[in-house]
Amino acid sequence: MIELEGLTKKYGEATAVDGLTLEVNEGELLVLLGGSGCGKTTTLKMINRLIEPTSGSIRIDGDDATGVPAHELRRRIGYVFQKIGLFPHMTIAENIAITPDLLGWDAARTSNRVDELLELVELDPSEMRERVPTALSGGQQQRVGVARALAAEPSVMLLDEPFGALDPLTRDRLQESFTRIRRRLGLTAIFVTHDMAEALLLGDRIAVMDAGELVQVGTPHELLHEPANDLVRELMETPQRQAQNLRSLFESSPEGDA
C-alpha cells in the first residue's frame, strides 16, 4: 500500500532522513518510533508532500506520489497531528466538511458524512455540529480532528503524535477509539510517536528510527524479544521497567497485602 524506497531528505549538509526503505501493508498500522530529531515526522511529511524529498521514491497503492499535484494527493490521505489545527472561526461541521467541499460534494452528501463521522468518533451530531472548537475539550477537539481526516473516505491515514498533548485518561480512551475505527474501516496508517508503550499497544509493526536511519522494523513481539541493538533494547525495556515499578507499588500497598 505504501512503499518508500531510498527516501532521503537533506537540509544543506545535514541529513534528516537517510535512505529509508520501508513498506506498509494494506490495512496495517505501522508505528514510526524514535526520539526527537530522528526523522520520523520528516518522513511522515514527505509521504504527504508537505516536505519534498531530496531523493528516493514514494508509492501509494502502486502509484508514484509525485505523479499528482501535492494538493490532490493530500485530499486522498487523512492527516492528524498533535496541535489539531481546527479553524476557530468555523463550526465543527464546517471544519469536518472542508475536504468534501473542496472535492465538490453536494450539500446533502457532505451533511450526511459529517453526521456519520461525528457518530463514528463518539460525538453527538445534534450537540456538536454548530459548536466552535473553543467550546470543546482537548479530547473532543482531537476526535473532530480524526473525523476531519476521514471526511473524504481516505484509505491511508498519517498521524503525527495525535494524542501526545492529552491527559492520560483521555489519551487512553482515544487510543482505544482510534483502534476500533481503524479496524472497522480497514485503514492503512502510519503513526508517529516517541512513546514506547503507545507504540507497543497500537502498532501491528514498529519501525525504530535513529539519526535519520531505520534501525529495526518488526512486530512488537519481535522488538521486545529480538532487539537489533542496544538502542532498541533500551526503548523496549522502558515500558517493561515502568510496568514492573507499578506492580511493585501495588504489591507493597495495603490493598495488595490484603
Properties at a glance:
43% helix; single chain; six-stranded mixed sheet; alpha/beta; 24% strand; four-stranded antiparallel sheet; 258 residues; globular
**Poorly predicted residue ranges:** none
Helicity range of the residues? 40-55%
Structural class, judged by helices and strands? alpha/beta
Mean pLDDT level: 91
Strand content: 15-25%
Q: Alpha-carbon distance between the termini?
A: 53 Å
Strand order of the largest sheet: 6-7-8-3-9-10
Count the helices. How many?
12
Largest sheet: 6 strands, mixed
What sort of overall outline do the alpha carbons produce when their principal axes are compared?
globular
Rg (C-alpha, Å): 20 Å
The oligomerization state is single chain
Strand tally is: 10
Strand-and-helix sequence, N→C? Answer: EEEHEEHEHHHHHEHEHEEHHH
In short:
This protein has 12 helices and 10 strands. With 258 residues, the chain is α/β, with parallel strands linked by helices.
Polypeptide structure, described:
- The chain is of the alpha/beta class and 258 residues long.
- 43% of the residues lie in helices and 24% in strands.
- The chain has helices at 40-47, 70-75, 92-96, 98-102, 107-120, 125-128, 138-149, 168-185, 196-202, 220-225, 230-252, 254-257, and strands at residues 2-11, 14-24, 29-33, 55-60, 63-64, 77-81, 156-160, 188-193, 205-210, 213-218.
- The strands form two sheets. Strands 6-7-8-3-9-10 form a six-stranded mixed beta sheet, with helices on both faces.
- Helix 5 crosses helix 7 and helix 7 (138-149) packs parallel to helix 8.
- The model has no long low-confidence stretch (mean pLDDT 91).
